[in-house]
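Colleagues,

For the teaching module next term, I've prepared a clean inverse folding example: a structure given as tokens, and then the sequence designed for it. I'd like students to try predicting residues themselves before seeing the answer, so please don't circulate the second half yet.
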């Protein structure tokens, strides 16, 4: 199979924009599209590449189509739109944090047309998307993953082959479940410590030098919570969606998940309390409200 040179990139939101920009920087022929009017043209003006009116126009003649949109429902809509126009041998790379079962259905439909699909959700947030240092979790056939690797390496430095189609998305959802749990637990730890008289910023330093260390203690508590910025680029709605996917995988595998179910309900409660449009780190506000305490420090 020929090497990938031309890429249609559907979805240049907070994550997709820097990821597509790194593909342009790596020398790929990139055509972008987005549902937000004018965003594709803005990308071309600021970064380069080409703009298309929609995914169907972007995918015409492309070796590869990348999707990174909010949900698997939207991936299915894109696949239905572009499927009839894709040439046999085109590779679809879905980088959405989607539903594994739905992704398998989409892949099966594309396979009837001779189009291969892999799933490749990412972790690392906007900062690591900008630097091309994302962790990418992969699901699909080995030959398809091999073909995609040069493209993926332009966006991430940590590639993990997890299994067949949908395995990457299952891993991503479970990763976010772990991250969500340690975030809320860590916030409660800081609230307890502050009420005891400890400095929460110093607590974070101790956690990061001790067994209580987590991604949240390293990359979120000082950077987005204690300074009250709450702006790391990952929305609360997306976190709640991913937790739902993780619990769905739990049900499908008949795995008892009482703690995980409570974690998901806490995040859903935070979303219901704060409303849409908030960053996921705003979830700390629910824990603060329950404790009657506002975290400070790290000025």
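(Answer key — instructors only)
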């Amino acid at each position: 199979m020929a090497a990938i040179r031309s890429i249609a990139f559907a979805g240049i939101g907070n994550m997709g924009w820097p990821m597509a920009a790194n593909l342009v920087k790596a020398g790929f022929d990139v055509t972008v599209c987005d549902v937000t009017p004018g965003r594709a043209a803005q990308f071309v003006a600021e970064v380069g590449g080409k703009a298309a009116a929609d995914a169907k126009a972007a995918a015409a003649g492309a070796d590869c189509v990348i999707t990174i949109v909010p949900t698997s429902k939207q991936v299915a809509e894109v696949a239905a739109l572009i499927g009839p126009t894709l040439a046999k041998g085109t590779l679809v790379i879905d980088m959405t944090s989607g539903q594994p079962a739905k992704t398998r259905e989409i892949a099966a439909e594309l396979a009837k047309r001779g189009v291969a699909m892999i799933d490749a959700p990412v972790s690392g947030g906007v900062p690591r998307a900008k630097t091309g240092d994302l962790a990418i979790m992969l699901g699909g056939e080995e030959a398809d993953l091999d073909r995609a690797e040069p493209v993926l390496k332009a966006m991430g430095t940590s590639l993990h082959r997890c299994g067949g189609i949908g395995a990457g998305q299952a891993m991503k959802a479970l990763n976010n479940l772990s991250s969500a749990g340690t975030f809320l637990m860590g916030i409660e730890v800081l609230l307890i410590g502050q009420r005891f008289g400890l400095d929460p910023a110093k607590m974070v330093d101790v956690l990061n030098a001790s067994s209580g260390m987590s991604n949240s203690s390293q990359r979120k508590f000082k950077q987005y919570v204690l300074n009250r910025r709450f702006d790391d680029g990952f929305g609360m709605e997306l976190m709640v969606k991913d937790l739902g996917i993780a619990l769905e995988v739990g049900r499908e595998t008949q795995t008892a998940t009482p703690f995980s179910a409570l974690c998901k309900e806490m995040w859903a409660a935070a979303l219901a309390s704060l409303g849409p449009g908030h960053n996921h780190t705003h979830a700390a506000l629910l824990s603060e409200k329950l404790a009657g305490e506002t975290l400070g420090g790290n000025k």
